[in-house]
Amino acid sequence: MKENVEEKIKGAWVRKIEEEHAFNYLNNYSENVNNGRTVPLLVDILNCEHGCNIGTGTCIERIEKDKIIAIIRGVQ
After folding, report:
1. Does 35 have pLDDT greater than 80?
2. Which of 6, 42, 56, 74 is the least buried, fewest Cβ under 10 Å from its Cβ?
């Protein structure tokens, strides 16, 4: 999602958070808003450490992670 938003909205700040880091980030997010600090346009919270395409819910043991990312991005 991050890459799609950044492609469509030039200069957009999208913060990608993975797994256990999400709760700490969200605890501080509202404080940052209330104190007038700059916050991202979008917070993309992923359940899997490496995202949905190569995270814990996939069968990545059989395929190298860089190869999967290259296929997704169309760089084969």
Report:
1. yes
2. 74
Q: How far apart are CA 36 and CA 1, in angstroms?
A: 26
Ranges of each domain in the chain: 2-73
Structure confidence at residue 34 (pLDDT) = 92
End-to-end CA distance of the chain: 21
Phi, psi dihedral angles at 66 (to 5 degrees): -65, -35
Separation between Cα atoms, residue 66 and residue 38, nearest integer Å? 33
Per the CB < 8 A criterion, the answer to whether 31 and 4 are in contact is: no
φ/ψ bin of 63: left (φ > 0), alpha (ψ from -120 to 50), beta (otherwise): beta
pTM: 0.58
Q: Looking at the predicted structure, is the pLDDT value of residue 50 above 70? A: no
43 close to 28: Cβ distance less than 8 angstroms: no
